Amino acid sequence: MQPLTLFVAAGVVAALAFLISLMSGAVQLSPAEVIATLLHSGNAADSRAEMIVNGIRLPRAVLAAMVGAILGISGAAMQGLFRNPLADPSLIGVTAGATAGASAVIVLGGTLLAGSAGLLLLSFGAFVGGALAVWLVYRLATTENGTSVANMLLAGIAITALAGSISSVLEFSSSNEMLRRISLWRMGGLDGADGGRAITALGAGFVLLIALPRYSKALNVLLLGESEARHLGIAVERMKTQLILLVAAGVGIAVALAGSIAFVGLVVPHIVRLLIGPDHRYLLPASALLGAALLLLADAVARIVIAPVELPVGIVTAVLGAPFFISLLRQRKAYGML
Amino acid sequence: MSKPVIAISNLEVAVADRVLVRDVNLQLHSGELAIIIGPNGAGKTSLLRALLGDVTPGRGEIELGGVALGKWSHTQRAKSVAALPQLSLLNFPFTAAEVIGLSRTPHSSGAAIDQEIIRAAAQSLDISHLMARVYTLLSGGEKQRVQLARVLAQIWRQQDVAPPPGAEAVRLLLLDEPNASQDIGHQQVLMRAVQTIAAQGVAVLMVEHDVGLAAHYADRLIAMNDSRIISQGSAQQVVTDDLMREVFYADIDVQLSDGRPVLVRRKNAL
Which residues from chain A sit within 8 angstroms of residue B74, using beta carbons? Predict the structure, then answer.
């Protein structure tokens, strides 16, 4: 498939998913109603639709799209950086650290958690936890000879395990209600979406979408190996540090805003590679586009399937992602990815 | 005689307190094909890595084009020095053409010229028919030829070289066992391609385990043992019965054919 074809197709899918996301929910709206509201051409009779779309669904759709894009593009960059097709952003400890941070806030936050300030505090805790974990992983893997990718993988496993046991200790000492909150947070959800979160996600997403593609040629060369990349003129150490910081900040913000959402960062770059090959010049933007589309669709499904109750979106991405990933593993030989 | 492409003096390389290269003095000139032979662990690859700046020398100096290697920036070096590693780790499904194309990353010669170079490099190594195939699904020997084509394409044109002020526009090709997984016919194809690029003014330094092959093609042979250069010169000067017996511990008879040493296994040898 030509990259351009994929861009057009993924763009159309993402736009449709965005529209579906604005239409669907406890109150079904028609496409015409949604578009009229977005273009502010509605009259007084449409005020209900306008409130639903602008007040609730638009921030949520923007959040879903940006979180999906961040996870997709970060996954692609991490797989390139680690030269490992099975890498995903959680590998450097972001997700486990964020979970521990969020659990700590839930268990220790007490009455502070009530109301909307609680959600903010929870996001903050998750971000700090994620950032701390990445910083530790990075420090452990860095010596005076530079950052070793293999050590980073191992340190990531160790810090993930450590953060996991911190979370477990917190859960062990928490009440039933706290346990439920922790486990709901873990499943990931976009139900806390509001204007502020949407704008935060938009900002983080834009920074990543502009910054990461600048590394695409260097990432291509890096797939040959680190010394080969150096021999081709790439300042490998500087590039590794910058990429890890960018991805950690992006994914940290995404996890803080929407909880841990499985499979987007892992599966989306694989789908893109299957379709157009591993060239990062196309892989990075296409992964962002497809990640946004996938999370928008998953969120729409999560809201519709047992409406008016919502499923956590992380469950839907895992249910959609796992079978796909299994089939991918079964045919990876033909795909040239051993 | 022109300035050497590379000049090494009193080089010592140590990694984790183990000295891997010591007292190495070596000069390579444009157009020269020099081949290093020596037993496993003699320091051959470490010497190449020092020339690439991958390991920092403990002592001694390396000059590239008359200027200290450290004065060359990453990009300047990438336009002058290309290296083929023993082992390639690439496990992402690029096509062979894309792999070769990665070599043009440091240059800004334009897509049309790059395509032409990629095509020519592939043709010189008999891999034109593999260009659209996925690299990870090629055989070991084919992969190695694709990698060599990539390395050749990196320094294909003299005019792409951009040395730092005061340095000469030199080209250096470092090859670490390029023939390891080639059949005998493709060894000849490969060596012909290497000779061709050397004839265009590139200095080539190559590590080779097949002493017979090295003796046949080398303009200069360099024998290493115990992290030192023990002898260098023409094949006839370097490849002797003594070298075979005392350095390689091999039971080999060295004979001469057209002035070049030929190795014959003794009848009663194991």
Answer: 230, 233-235
Structural contact between residues B157 and B111, judged by C-beta atoms closer than 8 angstroms: no
Interface-testing mutation among B99, B102, B103, B144, with chain A (most A C-beta atoms within 10 A) = B102
The answer to whether the CB atoms of B98 and A277 lie below 8 A apart is yes
Q: A223: nearest CA in chain B? A: B90
Gap from B14 CA to chain A (nearest CA, Å): 14
ipTM: 0.89
Rg (CA), chain B: 19
B154: nearest CA partner in chain A: A232
Residue contacts between A and B (CB atoms, under 8 Å): 78
Where are the strands (E) in B166-244, listed by range?
172-176, 203-207, 220-225, 228-233
The closest of A289, A210, A219 to A246, measured between CA atoms, is A210
Contact of B217 with B232, CB cutoff 8 Å: no
Out of A83, A277, A338, name the one closest to residue B94 (CB): A277
Torsion angle defined by CA atoms of residues A178, A181, A187 and A191, in that order, rounded to the nearest 10 degrees: -170
Is A336 within 8 Å of B93 when comparing Cβ atoms? yes
Contact (Cβ atoms closer than 8 angstroms) between residue A255 and residue A94? yes
Residue B123's CB is within 10 A of a number of other CB atoms, namely 13
Digit-by-digit pLDDT tens for chain B (270 residues) are: 577 999 999 999 988 888 899 999 999 999 999 999 999 989 999 999 999 988 888 889 999 999 999 899 999 999 999 999 988 888 888 999 999 999 999 998 889 999 999 999 999 999 999 999 999 889 999 999 999 999 999 999 999 999 999 889 999 999 999 998 899 999 999 999 999 999 999 999 999 999 999 999 999 999 999 999 999 999 889 998 888 888 888 888 888 888 888 888 877 655
CA distance B257 to A42: 95
Owner of token pair 């992964």: A287
Structural contact between residues A49 and A64, judged by C-beta atoms closer than 8 angstroms: no
> Which residue in chain A has the smallest CA separation from B135?
A336
